[in-house]
Amino acid sequence: MKDPLTQRLFFLFGLLIAAVVAGAVLSPHFLQTSTVAYLLQYVPVLGVLGMAQTLVMLSGGPGIDLSLGAIMSLVGLAIAGLFGLGVPLILACVIGLGIGGLLGAVNALLVCVLKVPSLMGTLATFFAYSGLALALTGGSPIGGIPDWFGTLAQGRFLGIPIHMWVVFVPLAIVLHVMLSRTRIGSHIYAAGNDEKAAFLSGVKVWRLRFMLYCLSGVIAGLAAIMTLSWFQAARPDAGEGMELLSVTIAVLGGAHIFGGIGRISGTVLAVLIVTTLQVALQLANISQAWQLAA
User: Fold this and answer.
1) What is the pLDDT of residues 66-124, one digit of tens each?
2) Cα–Cα dist 198/201, whole Å
3) Pairwise CA distance, residues 113 & 107, whole Å
4) How far apart are CA 45 and CA 228, in angstroms?
5) What is the per-residue pLDDT across 29-52, written as a single tens digit (0 to 9) for each?
6) For residues 125 and 106, is the Cβ–Cβ distance under 8 A?
7) Which of the two residues, 226 and 279, has the higher pLDDT score?
């Protein structure tokens, strides 16, 4: 009998093929090389957020992080603000990743220490972080990002956006190896499958989940850096709607909402499916309402 997760991957691969066929039918421009490059422009940002969501879900609890999009927006603004104050942009990006980790730590404090249900705790921080982003900027973007920084998300190597090569693919490989080949990965699955049994076997469950919320914030910071490079400006609404898309991608990819089941490979296929559908519907001039329904 086949492993259910392997069956899930076959299902997702078939769904991806169906999405490509639907795109080709909806628009004659879908299979053009320029369209593929445009589609892959979206994948890294959505993909890394989906991976972050997958990690939080896998550890159980049940865990979920509804603040990912807001963290992404706030970190982008922090990086642009630091650069505007004279901090070198690369150093500002490193500091931004740290800020993302701190924002994730706030979620971890609420969920893992104060025992607030993750849905409520991260929804609260979503509103707090989103409100702070709007309050700091008055709803206006922060520009002034140099042209050379745009190479990360706008440049191409072998026709594929550079941030696919240097961010999305390496992160997917690292997380896949971490989950499938390391003790931390086995602890994550153990905590998600049976919290009490994991604790009795020596896994510090709350500490593990705390770490994953912090890591989730850092990964959202990576998404912020890519978005900053793409638009060459920090927008307070850059992550709007991303939190729900990240949940969709994680669950479609096979991550169980109660933890213990899921793979990064499923998340990768899921983000390809979602972005393929989005781009196909945009090219076909389908209304935003129907795009959301799809």
Assistant:
1) 999 999 999 999 999 999 999 999 999 999 999 999 999 999 999 999 999 999 999 99
2) 5
3) 10
4) 11
5) 777 777 777 788 889 999 999 999
6) yes
7) 226
What's CA 233's distance to the chain center, in Å? 20
Identify the helix (H) or strand (E) that includes residue 156.
strand 156-157
Tokens of 176: 């896949």
Q: CA-CA distances (angstroms) from residue 45 to 79, 123, 172? A: 17, 21, 12
Q: Dump strand ranges (E) for 10-123.
A: none
**CB 162 within 8 Å of CB 230:** no
Q: Kindly report the CA angle at 52 between 207 and 274, in degrees rounded to 5?
A: 155
Which of these, 209, 262, 204, lies nearest to 61 by C-alpha position? 209
Tokens of 36: 């593929």
At position 125, the amino acid (one-letter code) is T
CA-nearest of 224, 236, 214, 244 to 131 is 236
Bridge partners (DSSP) of residue 156 are 161
Q: Structure tokens of 155?
A: 């440049």
| 176: pLDDT strictly greater than 60 | yes
215 within 8 A of 55, measured Cβ to Cβ: yes
Query: End-to-end CA distance of the chain, in Å?
Result: 32
Residues 202 and 198: their CA atoms lie apart, in Å, by 7
